Amino acid sequence: MRRLVVIAATALGLVAVLSQGPVSANGRPPAVQDQSLKALAARHNLAIGTAISNDALAEPQYKAIATQQFSSVTHENAMKWESLEPTRGTYNWGPADALIDFAKKNNQKVRGHVLVWHNQLPAWLTEGVANGTISKTELRDLLKKHITTVVKRYKGKIWQWDVVNEAASDPWDSPSEIHLKGFWAQNLGPTYIADAFRWARAADPHALLFYNDYNMEAFGDRGPSDKVWFIYNLIKNLRAQGVPIDGFGSQGHLGTQYGNFDAFQVKEVLDAFSDLGMVSAFTEVDVRSQMTAGVQAGDSNEINPRLQASASNFSVLLQACLLNRNCLSYTVWGFTDKHSWVPTWFTDPPEGLATLYDENYQPKRAYNSIKSDLVFAGPPHVQPRPRR
Ligand code: XIL
After folding, report:
1. Active-site pick, 166, 177, 217, 302
2. Which residue has its alpha carbon closest to ligand 1 atom 7?
3. What is the pLDDT of residue 34?
4. What separation in angstroms does the CA of 371 have from each of 106, 232, 303, 339, 376?
5. Which atom of ligand 1 sits closest to the CA of residue 162?
6. Cα–Cα dist 205/198, whole Å
7. Do residues 211 and 164 touch, judged by C-beta distance below 8 A?
8. For this UniProt entry, which segments traverse the membrane (predicted)?
9. Residue 274 Cα, ligand 1 centroid: separation in angstroms?
10. Closest C-alpha to ligand 1, atom 9
11. What's this model's pTM, rounded to 2 decimal places?
12. Which residues contact 357 (CB under 8 A, 6 or more apart)?
């Protein structure tokens, strides 16, 4: 009898514990063992990714963070055409394959970057077109061959492909009306976009195919110089013609000197693409700051506001992603200031401080801000997204 009472009391206690959620004696929630970004994001079915530089992977600290914090990886450069086919007809697959193997070993998904872009093209291709030895017809055939070869090689191994990257002009270009710009539009005309997506789909029917671009955070006035509006309409029209564009990639390269968006503004763009039946992702997030003389001299009056503004921008993009269930992943463009593209690319004025970790691999305020976002987000506004 006493045993039965004990069992009943234990069962009741268990029910009580389960219904209230676990609590420890001091009233705090129990310690959560794995507080990595990827573990915290997993409960939202959200992937947290990073671009990876193959060279940096040789550093143990870099490798440890890349493995422990991130559930998705992107080749920062190794899958670009100039890296894959530096000499016509000779592919250099080694570095690209190595990261695919690394991802598999670490149970990480891969965002493939990038199939069609006007930058980082092999010299034999751009020079051949410039000197007329490669005709327009041949160029189209070469593009088809490139997409087919690369996508087939990695068939089944790439979760999301950036098929077309940065096709649109910016409002500061001339003319200021947004238009298709760059090598591919100039040489093949606007139809290359539909072609590229169709060729990619034929080579791997299951990879999610993305259009990827920068300055895509918020709609402007929806007029001729509004880049987001231009891309939205371009994709809407292409999809209406049956072009297989599954995803909208918003790169998310921000700068603290430009002011902030808010999460609901950014969500509006993701929602617009969702309404077209598409998924989305943040694909290259970093938030740079100007490295004034004061910053370089270590003046905290100048450094602190930059670190705070950077954190806030990282957070806004993640919050927007959390608010839209079709936003599948949030990828940062490198995670440490030690290996960020920013200081080499933005030199006049010098910029930096753009990533989640400092040069000594210490997490910055930005890291803790997005960690908080993942911890605090929950129903009803943030629901787990479907697994894909
Ligand atoms: C950058 C890399 O980070 C650099 O290492 C490289 O020298 C130039 O390209 N948008 C993109 C990325 O889509 O491919 C770019 O990556 C950054 C801007």
Report:
1. 166
2. 341
3. 86
4. 21, 30, 21, 21, 9
5. 13
6. 10
7. yes
8. none
9. 27
10. 77
11. 0.93
12. 65, 335, 336, 337, 338, 363, 364, 367
Which amino acid is located at 15 in the chain?
V
Does the Cβ of 341 fall within 6 Å of ligand 1? yes
Mutate to test the pocket of ligand 1, among 55, 117, 164, 333 (most ligand atoms within 8 A of CB): 333
Q: Which two tokens mark 219? A: 């709609």
Give me ligand 1 centre to Cα 340, in Å: 10
Sign of CA dihedral 187, 189, 193, 198: negative
* Domains of the chain as residue ranges with CATH: 36-376 (3.20.20.80)
Determine contact, residues 56/333, Cβ cutoff 8 Å. no
Averages of pLDDT over each 10 residues, the chain, 388 residues? 49 45 71 91 97 96 98 98 98 98 98 98 98 98 98 98 98 97 98 99 98 98 98 98 98 95 98 98 98 98 98 98 98 98 98 98 98 96 90
- The pLDDT of residue 98: 98
Give the β-pairing of 351-352 and 279-290: antiparallel
| Structure-token pair, residue 263 | 């999460």
**Whose structure tokens read 């933005």?**
346
- Report DSSP letters for 70-114, one per residue: -SEEEESSTTSHHHH-SBTTB---HHHHHHHHHHHHTT-EEEEEE
pLDDT given at position 361: 98
Task: Give one DSSP letter per residue of 47-72, joined into a string.
Answer: EEEEEE-TTGGGSHHHHHHHHHH-SE
CB atoms within 10 A of CB 339: 19
